[in-house]
Design goal:
Layout: H1 3-14, E1 20-25, H2 32-43, E2 47-51, H3 59-64, H4 79-91, E3 95-101, E4 106-114, E5 120-125, E6 144-149, H5 152-165, H6 170-191, E7 197-200
Parallel strand pairs: 1-5, 1-6, 2-5, 6-7
Antiparallel strand pairs: 3-4
Helix pairs in contact: 1-2, 5-6
């Protein structure tokens, strides 16, 4: 399925309904944020992106838990806070959402607002379809689930470019990918439930 076909499918499924939540899931570097932005632009007024990454635990919390070197793993997110947000989005007209600032490596609470005119919400994140407790509680809260499929070697190439952009040396990037990103990629690819639709990333 192409992105244009996905836009048409979303319009068809969301037509005549109230707030419509889409899960856009996939491994790290699959292009979730890029596709979410493209979908919101194509869908136009009333569409908004809601990133899961705003629920990263702060580095201070991860350091205290001995988990800083696993940042991005499923247990390094405030999952219950994220699930609470999804439930609020289903029933409340206006909801503040956190956003993750990758340049600062910090989440900013209340950094954006989902308002009454935001009807189609593209929620994007790695673990939206992960079939592990408590993440599996998220899937029933979505009206449509979409998986972005990307080959592992392409994900590796993109991650090397990403971490170079954020200042890691090639050696640092290689170590981080091998010790952290790639285990997360394999966990989410192997452990996620089936999506309603699949697109190539």
């Amino acid at each position: 399925m192409t992105s244009a076909e996905l836009v048409a499918e979303i319009r068809f499924r969301a037509g005549g309904k109230g707030r419509f939540l889409i899960a856009l899931a996939g491994p790290p570097a699959a292009g979730k944020s890029t596709l979410a932005e493209a979908l919101v632009t194509a869908l136009g007024k009333g569409a908004k992106a809601v990133p899961m990454d705003g629920f990263h635990y702060d580095d201070a919390v991860l350091i205290a838990r001995g988990a800083r070197d696993r940042k991005g793993a499923p247990d390094t997110f405030d999952v219950q806070g994220f699930l609470h947000l999804l439930r609020r989005l289903r029933r409340e007209t206006e909801v503040a959402i956190p956003l993750f600032d990758r340049a600062l490596e910090i989440s900013r609470a209340g950094a954006d607002i989902v308002g009454k005119d935001d009807r189609i919400l593209v929620v994007e994140g790695n673990y939206l379809l992960l079939d592990e407790a408590p993440w599996r509680e998220a899937q029933p809260l979505f009206d449509l689930t979409v998986w972005i499929d990307v080959a592992e070697d392409e994900l590796d190439r993109r991650l090397l470019a990403r971490w170079a952009h954020y200042g890691k040396t090639p050696e640092e990037a290689r170590h981080w990918i091998d010790s952290n990103d790639m285990p997360n990629i394999r966990r989410v690819v192997q452990g996620s439930g089936k999506a309603d639709l699949v697109v190539s990333g």
